[in-house]
Amino acid sequence: MRGPASDLPLTFVDASIVVRDVTILDGITLTITSGPPTILIGPNGSGKTTLLRAAMGLMPLSYGRITWAGRDGDTPPKSAIMFQRPTMLRRSAAANVRYALAAADIPRAHRHERAAELLALVGLLDLGGRPARHLSGGEQQRLALARALARDPTVLLLDEPTASLDPYSTKAIEDIVRAVSARGVKVMMSTHDIGQAKRLAGDVVLLHRGRLIENTPATEFFAKPRTEEARRFIAGELLV
Fold first, then answer.
1. CATH T-level topology, domain 10-87+157-234
2. Structure confidence by residue, pLDDT tens digits, 133-148
3. How many CB atoms within 10 Å of residue 134?
4. Rounded to an integer, what distance in angstroms lies between the CA atom of residue 191 and that of residue 216?
5. What is the rounded CA–CA span in Å between residue 98 and residue 189?
6. What's the CA gap between 155 and 163, in Å, rounded?
7. DSSP letters of 65-82?
8. Are 38 and 201 in contact (CB under 8 A)?
9. Which helix or strand (DSSP H or E) is residue 51 part of?
10. pTM attached to this predicted model
11. Radius of gyration of the chain (CA)
12. Residue 71 burial (10 A CB sphere; 0-12, 13-18, 19+)
């Protein structure tokens, strides 16, 4: 696993995305630095997924810019993203990870050992021979995490990785996030779960209707939110 992330800071400067006259991101200016997980929160449609995809170069900006460590251009090779509903390849769990290792240009001689290490990290070593599509939903999410970690990333972006999972599977994913973060990988993760944000966040980014509402340390955000939108969201009220 990597040391402190060398591709940071990740900086958004007036980042905007407009699709068919609909503004999805609205002038986001934000800097992501190394340290504990940065948690993106906000109601559905607030722009969380779009912000993560834009960071990885998967959605072009209409206006503004995104830089990694002060550099414009391609997304760094030592960054990875895990989507909310990852697709499992029609092969075993271990073969899914080995495929990801091959895509990351890991030499063939090292793939078997490295796949075992990653499966152990996510608690799936005993299920390595099972067809990936026969795993439970929570197990598939952990396998997707192992595949993302095959790139040995310095920065890991996670798009609501525990959506629709049961409490046991949610805890398993959160434990992996903590373990990865403790090894120096910067995690930037979206969630709509306030409790999860409290458990994981070093800092919190609140989005609403594509706008940045707050970006503060987690303890400050939950104890003394600065905006009315933040107070209402923490209280479980609907943001309109």
1. Rossmann fold (3.40.50)
2. 999 999 999 999 999 9
3. 12
4. 16
5. 25
6. 21
7. EEEETTB-SSPPTTEEEE
8. yes
9. helix 48-55
10. 0.93
11. 18
12. exposed
